[in-house]
Each structure stands twice: as structure tokens, then as C-alpha cells.
Automatic annotation (TrEMBL):
It comes from Candidatus Komeilibacteria bacterium RIFCSPLOWO2_01_FULL_45_10. Coiled coil: none annotated. This is GIY-YIG domain-containing protein. Belongs to the UPF0213 family. PANTHER family: BSL5627 PROTEIN (PTHR34477:SF5), UPF0213 PROTEIN YHBQ (PTHR34477). It comes from the Bacteria. Residues 2-80 form the GIY-YIG domain.
């Protein structure tokens, strides 16, 4: 069974928030950190710290959940992050 992910990255605590989706979260975060796509939003604003993610069971659920999160007001996105990550730690550092 394949996992799908919805995630939020930032450049610093209370900074710019970016919501995205991926079927390989480690690879996608690596792409953000290494600015593989230098002209995209995350590269321009240095948004490469993974502060939130959730696993979805299929691609349709992933896309729907990403849309839900993107439509949240900023305060609600911050609540999502701080529920499990109050210090806004870069969760990808656990992979090293």
C-alpha cells in the first residue's frame, strides 16, 4: 500500500507557510531544501522546514485534504502545526 502526504513547510516560526502534497515526503522535502526548482515559491522564500504532515490513504484523499488545509485561515493552519509541533521544529531532521 502506498502512502500519500499533505504537508506544511515554513521558513521560520510564524513565517511564510506553504501547503503541499507528495507521494514521497522525504524526496519532496529534499527538493525544497535543495531548491531543485529555483523559480518556485518555496525556493524564492526559503520555505524548507517541514513543520506538519499527515498521511492519507489514497491520492484523492490527499488532494482533497490539501485543498481543505489551503482554504483554512492562517490561524487554523497554525493550530494544526502547534497541536503536535508547538516549537515549530523541522520534522525532517528526524530522518538524518
Amino acid at each position: 500500500m502506498k502512502d500519500y502526504f499533505v504537508y506544511i513547510t515554513t521558513n521560520k516560526k510564524d513565517g511564510v507557510l506553504y501547503t503541499g502534497h507528495a507521494n514521497n515526503l522525504q524526496r519532496r522535502v529534499w527538493e525544497h531544501k535543495n531548491k531543485v526548482y529555483p523559480n518556485n515559491f518555496t525556493a524564492r522564500y526559503n520555505v524548507d522546514k517541514l513543520v506538519y504532515y499527515e498521511v492519507c490513504g489514497d491520492a484523492i484523499s490527499m488532494i482533497n485534504r490539501e485543498k481543505q488545509i489551503k482554504n483554512l485561515v492562517r490561524r487554523k493552519k497554525i493550530e494544526l502545526i502547534e497541536k503536535d509541533n508547538p516549537g515549530w521544529q523541522d520534522l525532517s531532521l528526524e530522518w538524518e
